[in-house]
Specification:
Blueprint (H helix, E strand, L loop, with lengths): L5 E6 L2 H17 L3 E5 L17 E3 L2 H4 L8 H17 L5 E6 L7 H20 L2 E8 H4 L1 H8 L4 E3 L5 E5 L5 E8 L5 H9 L8 E6 L2 E4 L1 H14 L2 E6 L2 H10 L4 E5 L2
Parallel strand pairs: 1-5, 1-6, 2-3, 2-4, 4-5, 8-9, 8-10, 9-11, 11-12
Antiparallel strand pairs: 7-8
Helix pairs in contact: 3-4, 7-8
């Protein structure tokens, strides 16, 4: 089981996911957390039979989420923040959620809203005692739709993504790990747009210390995003090749800083 606070788990075998979900739920109970399970329609896991008593709740997605056509990202984060505070007030160490969100991302509109929520709730979980596994059924959604959501998590399993773009410490910062090359196509551009980064002092920061490679098309995508928002994007990376490439491309809205 990953140690990430915000994990995406996509699957095409319901039994395998049910097994993993049970493992995560039991780990939450062992850690003294309140545990929520929002199963998909094909789940066969009887989470209510786990030895957690009142510590575990099995909810429908209609109960757990703020909107069913397309959720409001900020409202949904507030819902989970309130649930986390309620868990703390009740004596638990935090809140752990395992949610199959397949039914909430079937349309383009739903997926766009939910992807923005995924990024936003990831920022909340950086400092709050909340952990979550967000699950998606690849058989129902297809690989591309799942990838759009998976890449905005701290970690992902089962999705065809080479990079993770997840929240930094502030609303002006994002963290970029992995590799961003031509295979990312529009996925990276779409992910950048959905971060809704808010500039501080006219700049946003992309912490790319965990990035092993970025190609010219991806740097141009960062440039287009920064230009469209009227800001400067600061890319902090350990790879000097990215700085040389940015210099060759002459990107007025991107500054690459090589860190050690």
């Amino acid at each position: 089981m990953t140690s990430a606070g915000h994990e995406c788990w996509s699957y095409d075998d319901q039994h395998l996911f049910d097994t993993y979900a049970r493992e995560v739920l039991l780990a939450g109970l062992a850690a003294g957390e309140r545990v929520w399970y929002i199963p998909g329609r094909f789940s066969r896991l009887d989470a209510g039979a786990l030895p957690g008593g009142e510590a575990i709740r099995v909810l429908s997605f209609q109960t757990a989420y703020s909107g069913h056509e397309a959720i409001d990202p900020a409202t949904q984060v507030a819902t989970y923040a309130a649930a986390t505070e309620d868990a703390l007030d009740a004596g638990f160490t935090g809140l752990r959620v395992v949610a199959d969100a397949t039914e909430l991302v079937r349309t383009d509109e739903q997926r766009d809203a939910f992807a923005r929520y995924e990024y936003l709730v990831g920022r909340y979980m950086r400092t709050a005692p909340m952990r979550a596994v967000c699950a998606y059924d690849r058989r129902e959604l297809g690989n591309l739709a799942v990838s759009e959501l998976a890449c905005l998590h701290e970690s992902s399993s089962g999705a065809d993504v080479a990079f993770q773009l997840h929240p930094g410490a502030t609303s002006a910062e994002a963290v970029l790990d992995g590799e961003v090359d031509g295979s990312a196509g529009e996925l990276f551009t779409t992910a950048l747009r959905r971060t809704d980064l808010a500039a501080s002092g006219g700049e946003i920061v992309v912490d790319a210390a965990g990035l092993s490679f970025i190609d010219h098309r991806s740097l141009l995508a960062v440039e287009r995003y920064a230009e469209s928002q009227g800001l400067t994007a600061v890319l902090r990376t350990r790879t000097s090749a990215a700085a040389r490439l940015a210099q060759l491309l002459d990107l007025p809205n991107v500054r690459v800083e090589v860190t050690r």
